[in-house]
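Saturday, quiet lab. Running sequence design on the structure tokens for the scaffold JK sent over.
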């Protein structure tokens, strides 16, 4: 039995059913789970002093492309809309292999960890030169984050009217067979799982309707979740109308892509009927505010979604379209954009943090994560609010208004991933050196 006590935090933001905020709060952890949250708790195990800190549940990232961490700020793509940006990056990504996938995932996961993230999905939809989903799963095991990789795919290349080059697409039979392989090898449906696998054809403009339908059937046969991009910008809507004769929401519904086991990335351009459809069907949304700003896609109607009852989480999206992977900064951006669109009272700092924690866990189907309460997994972030970012703050728990964007400590399944602001699970400095060497080789 292993036990740990987080002791004496200025505030513990539990995100439990009552949204308790406990001043002078403690969190007792045993064998990877939370056993008590309160004041004056005792332990015979390790004690982590949290005076001057705020403790939150670990943040959940619902959409990422970890491989893109190797292609930040690429010239030619810095000022492009979505389709032009993809056209710039596809030829570069076609030169990746297993080493690029592994190292880029390492760096992306470490960046997420330092920003308070304990649970992340990943959408990997291209597999050049022998790269496999296994490469990113290995990276997550080394870093120590709870991981929900999705086996993505592209099957319609340029010669068939699609967007990606033919060199990056796969045969649909091979795609489905590899989905079965990775699910059988890695998916763990049990509570407390460190790895769950999803099925994730890339987008309506890079795969066939048949693959979308077959992927949904396969995922439900295997009991795993479904993920894709949807309604990201005006180009996306125009493509759906011209190619399918319907809006993205109807396209998704017709092919079995709505339900509690489905979440869609972006959804910037959903209309009222589509929002109602997602609410009725319990379909989730990964909101990616920084990427949507960077690519000029627009402001997603998150306030309307939340008010309608749609499950919403946050995603940093790929680091080639963000170009960062800081999840707590993403939460602040989400809050600010809803205020820009709907007024200063449209979203509070606490609601945005709830979306980043409990909201993301719900989107990913993880009712064992996202809050600090007895029986939940011991995934939490400790934020030092004694520094300059919070100096003069009247409400240290309002982290997204006046708080740090880097954790002091991050604990996943009761184990330290970050301690005193440093990654402790692997040699981050060496990984950064490798990352920069690989980037230089791609540039050259």
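Result came back. Writing it out in full:
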């Amino acid at each position: 039995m292993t036990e740990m006590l987080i002791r004496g935090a200025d505030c513990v933001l539990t995100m439990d059913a009552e949204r308790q905020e406990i001043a002078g709060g403690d969190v007792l952890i045993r064998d990877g789970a939370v056993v008590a949250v309160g004041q004056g708790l005792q332990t015979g195990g390790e004690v982590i002093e949290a005076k001057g800190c705020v403790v939150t549940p670990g943040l959940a990232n619902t959409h990422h492309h970890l491989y893109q961490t190797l292609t930040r700020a690429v010239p030619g793509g810095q000022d492009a809309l979505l389709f032009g940006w993809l056209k710039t990056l596809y030829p570069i990504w076609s030169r990746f292999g297993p080493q690029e996938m592994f190292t880029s995932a390492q760096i992306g996961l470490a960046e997420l960890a330092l920003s308070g993230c304990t649970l992340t999905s990943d959408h990997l939809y291209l597999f050049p030169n022998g790269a496999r989903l296994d490469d990113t799963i290995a990276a997550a095991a080394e870093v120590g984050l709870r991981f929900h990789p999705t086996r993505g795919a592209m099957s319609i290349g340029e010669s068939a009217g699609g967007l990606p080059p033919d060199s990056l697409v796969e045969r649909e039979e091979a795609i489905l067979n590899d989905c079965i392989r990775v699910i059988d090898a890695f998916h763990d449906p049990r509570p407390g799982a460190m790895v769950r696998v999803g099925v994730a054809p890339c987008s309506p403009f890079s795969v066939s309707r048949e693959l979308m339908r077959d992927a949904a059937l396969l995922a439900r046969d295997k009991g795993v979740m479904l993920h894709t991009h949807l309604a990201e910008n005006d180009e996306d809507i125009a493509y759906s109308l011209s190619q399918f004769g319907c809006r993205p929401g109807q396209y998704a519904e017709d092919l079995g892509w709505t339900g509690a086991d489905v979440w869609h990335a972006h959804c910037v351009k959903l209309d009222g009927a589509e929002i109602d459809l997602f609410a009725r069907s319990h379909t989730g949304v990964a909101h990616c505010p920084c990427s949507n700003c960077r690519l000029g896609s627009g402001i997603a109607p998150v306030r309307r979604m939340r008010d309608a009852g749609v499950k919403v989480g946050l995603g940093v999206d790929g680091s080639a379209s963000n170009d960062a992977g800081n999840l707590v900064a993403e939460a602040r951006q989400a809050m600010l954009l809803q205020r820009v669109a709907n007024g200063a009272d449209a979203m509070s700092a606490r609601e945005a943090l709830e979306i980043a924690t409990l909201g993301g866990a719900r989107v990913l189907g993880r009712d064992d994560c996202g809050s600090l309460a007895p029986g939940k997994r011991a995934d939490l972030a400790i934020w030092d609010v004694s520094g300059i970012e919070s100096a003069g703050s009247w409400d240290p728990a309002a982290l997204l208004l006046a708080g740090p964007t880097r954790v002091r400590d991050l604990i996943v399944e009761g184990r330290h991933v970050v301690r005193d602001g440093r990654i402790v699970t692997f040699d981050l400095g060496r990984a950064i050196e490798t990352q920069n060497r690989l980037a230089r080789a791609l540039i050259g």
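Notes for JK: The chain is about 35% helix and 20% strand. The chain has a mean pLDDT of 97. Ask whether to fix the surface positions before the next round.
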